[in-house]
TrEMBL record:
Domain HTH cro/C1-type: 37-95
Sequence intervals crossing the membrane: none
The organism of origin for this protein: Sediminispirochaeta smaragdinae (strain DSM 11293 / JCM 15392 / SEBR 4228) (Spirochaeta smaragdinae)
UniProt signal peptide: none
Superkingdom, natural source: Bacteria
Lineage: Bacteria, Pseudomonadati, Spirochaetota, Spirochaetia, Spirochaetales
Protein name: Transcriptional regulator, XRE family
Pfam family, one: HTH_3
InterPro entries in the cross-refs: Cro/C1-type_HTH (IPR001387), Lambda_DNA-bd_dom_sf (IPR010982)
SUPFAM superfamilies: lambda repressor-like DNA-binding domains (SSF47413)
Gene3D superfamilies: lambda repressor-like DNA-binding domains (1.10.260.40)
One GO MF term attached to the UniProt entry: DNA binding
């Protein structure tokens, strides 16, 4: 019988590999952005379709913006429009690399 491994344990083990860690760190900011956009939309009580109507666009465009598997990152103006539609402004900050 196979032992069940939690996602967190799997992730921790995988990140011990330097190549995996490097790719993870590269993708992490984009993933976190999309995760935050989804959180804000849900906090606003909106479906993707409702948000699309506010932005005068298609639901498929909202889905593409929120999809972590999409290779293309949304433009800054798109993120600004999205944020305003859910009741937020954006703030960009720069942090030093370590």
């Amino acid at each position: 019988m196979m032992e069940t491994v939690s996602f967190n344990d799997f992730k921790k083990e995988a990140l011990n590999d330097p190549e995996v860690r490097k790719e993870y760190e590269t993708l992490k900011p984009d993933y976190e952005l999309r995760k935050r956009l989804i959180e804000l939309r849900l906090q606003a009580g909106l479906t993707q379709e409702e948000l699309a109507k506010r932005l005068h666009t298609q639901k498929s465009n909202i889905s593409r913006i929120e999809n972590v598997n999409t290779k293309n990152s949304p433009r800054l103006s798109t993120i600004e429009d999205y944020a305003r539609a859910v009741g937020y402004n954006i703030k960009i900050d720069f942090i030093p690399t370590s």
